[in-house]
Amino acid sequence: MQYEVELEDNIPGCPNFKWKEALSLPSWGSHAKPSLEEIENISKTAYKMEVIRALLNCPLRVTSWLRPKAYNKAIGGARRSKHIEGLAVDFQPIDMDCDKAREILLPLLPGLEIRMEDKPGSNWVHIDLGEVINSRFFKP
Q: Could you tell me if residue 31 is inside a domain?
C-alpha cells in the first residue's frame, strides 16, 4: 500500500531534509509514492543524514534516495540497491569536495552504523544502512 506525504514537509525529526528530496525521481520528472515500510526506512536514513550534515558542517544536496524497482532498473542502479528500500542516499556536500567528505566519514562509519561506496573522483557520496558483509567501505 502506498502513502501520500506532503512533499514540502520535513521528514519527522529532521529539520534539514524534506520528503520531496527523499522521493524525487528526476529522470521521470515525478516523485515516488512510498509504502509504510519505505517511510520508516527513509526516516531512519534521514536521521543518519542529519548526523552526517553536522559532522561535515555543511548543507547536503540529495541526488538520489528512494528508487522504486522500475526506476532503479531504468537508471542502471544495482539490482539489490538499498535505494529500493529507502535505506540509501547519494548526496553532494555543498562547498566541499566529495573525496574530502568520504575522507572525513571513513573512520566514522562503524560508529554511524552506515556503509559508504569507495568511489574516488565521483561527484556524489553514497551512504546506506545495508548489512556489512566484508567492509563498511565498499566498491560498487
A: yes
